[in-house]
Design brief:
The protein is built from seven helices and seven strands. Helix content is 36%, strand content 19%. A seven-stranded mixed β-sheet has the order 1-2-3-4-5-7-6, with helices on both faces. It is globular. By secondary structure, it is an alpha+beta fold.
Length: 259
């Protein structure tokens, strides 16, 4: 049961993380960045949706513009409808599957305070059971180099750790392309992922790289220590909304056949 697992986690001495959406305070990470899961309520803010849409598409354009035809001056990674859909997926938390994490700076989430986003998925159609996934990692151009991507990744991986034992990411790699080289160094270096196909051979062409890394068992237990109380509160709320049970009517006595 939920209560039994929570008691077991408490007995292991795992520290209960502070409540709220504040970013981890690890060395080198900004303390004024907060991360929340998007919801359909946020999707009602047209300016917020536009900020996310513009931020994502502009970021992806910058990453691939050297590979595009010189006449192409934009790139659509997401449509407005896809942003709305991804935000709405967060309504299922804490039982959701795919969500969009939103990073913002300061005390209030507004279109102007949004500085990044990324997605995380507990189970995708293309990964095996127990393998989570994150992607769509974007930081607003004027805010890059400030540790915001690390904060987003920490939030996504903490969420995935509640149900998964490993994580997969994918990316397009083109040898010699500056952005691709930085991406490989980031994913397969700083982030700790490894690709089963190994390092690209010299002279190889563009490739789609699938990389994975394990989730440490302690990270999984810490994540569940946060998630299980949320799940219990959701169950309690659902029970309160149900109509009160009524006693079953007494069954009529069986008729006695005439003797």
């Amino acid at each position: 049961t939920l209560d039994a697992e929570l008691e077991e986690l408490k007995e292991e001495g795992l520290e209960q993380p502070a409540q709220g959406a504040e970013a981890p305070s690890a060395s080198g990470r900004p303390r004024d960045i907060f991360v929340v899961v998007g919801t359909s309520k946020m999707a009602e803010d047209r300016a917020l949706v536009q900020k996310i849409l513009t931020m994502v598409n502009a970021s992806y354009y910058e990453s691939v513009k050297d590979l595009l035809h010189e006449s192409q001056d934009s790139y659509e990674r997401l449509s407005r409808g896809e942003v709305l859909e991804r935000l709405g997926m967060g309504d299922d938390e804490p039982q959701g599957n795919r969500v969009l994490h939103i990073a913002y700076r300061g005390a209030e989430l507004t279109p102007a305070s949004v500085v990044g986003c990324m997605s995380s998925t507990i189970q995708t159609p293309w990964t095996g059971r127990g393998c989570g996934h994150w992607g769509l990692l974007v930081v607003y151009k004027d805010c890059q180099g400030q540790g915001i991507a690390s904060v987003l990744i920490a939030a996504a991986e903490q969420r995935l750790a509640r149900s998964c034992h490993e994580i997969q990411v994918e990316y397009e790699y083109t040898p010699g392309h500056a952005y691709s080289e930085r991406l490989m160094a980031w994913y397969e270096g700083s982030c700790g992922f490894s690709c089963s196909s190994g390092h690209p051979r010299p002279g190889s062409g563009a490739q789609f790289r699938k990389c994975r890394k394990p989730i440490p068992p302690e990270a999984g237990r810490r994540s569940r220590r946060i998630w299980l109380p949320e799940l219990r509160a959701l169950a309690a709320s659902a029970l309160e909304e149900l109509p009160a049970a009524t006693p079953l009517e007494e069954a009529p006595a069986a008729a006695v056949p005439p003797g």
